[in-house]
Specification:
By secondary structure, this protein is an alpha/beta fold. The protein has helices at 44-51, 74-83, 100-110, 116-125, 141-153, 171-188, 199-202, 234-266, 272-295; strands at residues 2-13, 16-28, 33-37, 59-64, 67-68, 85-88, 159-163, 191-195, 207-212, 215-220. It folds into two domains: 2-224, P-loop containing nucleotide triphosphate hydrolases (Rossmann fold, 3-Layer(aba) Sandwich), CATH 3.40.50; 234-302. The chain is built from nine helices and ten strands. Helix 3 packs across helix 4 and helix 3 (100-110) runs parallel beside helix 5 (141-153). It binds adenosine-5'-diphosphate and magnesium ion. Adenosine-5'-diphosphate is lined by residues 11, 13, 18, 20, 38, 40-46. The site of adenosine-5'-diphosphate has 12 residues, from strand 1, strand 2 and helix 1.
Length: 303
Amino acid sequence: MIVVDRAIKVYESRGEKITALREVSLRVPKRSVYTIMGPSGSGKTTLLNLIGGIDKPTAGTIIVDNINVSSLTGEDLRKYRLHKIGYVFQSYNLVPTLTALENVLLPMTLAGRPDRERALDLLRQVGLEGLEKRFPEELSGGQQQRLAIAVALANDPPVIIADEPTGELDLATGERIVRLLLDQRDRHGKTVLITTHDPRVARMTDKVILLEDGRILGEYEPSKIHDIAGGTATGEVSAERVIVEYIKKRLAELGEEMRRLADAFARGEVDPDTFEEKYRELKTLQKAFQAELSRLGAGPEAL
Ligand code: ADP
Ligand code: MG
């Protein structure tokens, strides 16, 4: 169980104060998979870092598995990170000079319990059987993501936090990653907290929390989201409105990215191949989000 109580995070950089979290309170029960969605810069990574013991809140408390994380220091903090939390970083944090198997063995070794059989079993669980001897760069993006999850599970932590573990581009890979995490909930009673931009991925989880500008906008149960036009119960309608607003914001962000890319291309800062590839990716995403809006009954005309 994760309990975040009125967490505030203020960063100071070059004399300027940036408030990343404004009194965020949140409970993630044991044996559940929660998703945090929100535009870029809304505070998702900051929140995960506080829970993961990587950063400290400016105010408020974080309790994980009855441990007051915000008060831990030194060896206690190191042990907390090693045993209680499996952190899947946005950048995967794999060691490039170690094989897949060695990457999984690393946290076990740091904990003084290297277990080759368990490492091999974890690699099997994430579908990387036969690739144990590959180095990270010899694996596809999706395989690296799954390896990062196997590494996070190495010391059997009760809590898994994953920062954008699913790319938006490839729904099949995203679904596979989420299934893997749902399976950890069902078979091992894990508590899982992930961030994503992808509403299709969020929909597979137990609860979605929307973050904006360091505040929680709302929580909703994905199973209750049907059709914004047909919603009746007030709570459901507002949850749908919130998700529709979110998708519209994300679409605006994508539009902005496409404009910036086109400008850079026009100025000759981006070569034609890169431009075309990037533009096509963004276009694919835009279509996926527009389809999601239509699915929610908001339709592209609602833009
Ligand atoms: P998200 O993961 O939702 O994109 P972040 O948690 O990374 O958002 O960032 C939230 C806000 O805090 C942003 O305005 C970001 O610029 C700022 N921020 C994040 N990390 C730092 C840092 N180390 N120093 C200063 N500002 C930061
Ligand atoms: Mg982030």
